[in-house]
């Protein structure tokens, strides 16, 4: 269902996709930028969710890998 909604909503809509990435990045910056403990918890949670949710699902794995790479590229360019 989530993948279906993703395909319907943002597969061909780069502006919406950019907006989602921007919102996630802003939440990250607001929430954990200057808090190492929260950053560690956040990273651990993301890793656990990744392992549980997409470990054996190539479609989601490609989506998550793309989002993580895009967020990393934006974050590195801005810091």
Automatic annotation (TrEMBL):
It comes from the Bacteria. This is Uncharacterized protein. It comes from Mycoplasmopsis edwardii.
